[in-house]
Amino acid sequence: MPAIIEPRSELIPDPATVTALVSQLVEGPWPRSDQDREVLFRRLRLKSGERLDHDADESSTASFTLLTEVPGISFASWNLFRGKFMSVHFHLYVFPEAEATATRLGHDAVSSQLTDLYGQPIRPWEDEDVPPSIWKANGREIVTHLFTMRDSTLMLSISDEDLAEAAEAEAEAEAINGSRTPVKNDPSP
Q: What pLDDT score was predicted for residue 174?
């Protein structure tokens, strides 16, 4: 009797490719200069694109598109905080429909592999079907967030933990005060 073959969805990008990219961003030294960031991007076959926030004011953050040769990454970007490389963001397994099975499979596979590498994630809240997951390793923060309400996508971010905390604190202070106010834990000079 022939073996029963289960149908298998081929995920693009392969979750192992995603996890390898994350580990290269997490386990090596984080770029401390624009030149270091450019070297990292070349090594990972990433290329900076256009600035996304054509903001003329004195914002302390800047966002840029990120071009990659990795198939299946529908959108990517990177950010600066006070002129320092802060983070990269990828949108994976994107489908123009709610509850796309492949998006959920991609999320589950990437999350499982990240858990194997970095331990159990922190979940900042539990009021969603699949809450965001946060792993902290080597001064980096890795965040996955599954969106499936209207369209389906897995958002994956890798940040310098100190810079991301400082940027968030400054944004919160700005929202409260109505103006940009540097905060005490700002790691920038």
A: 78
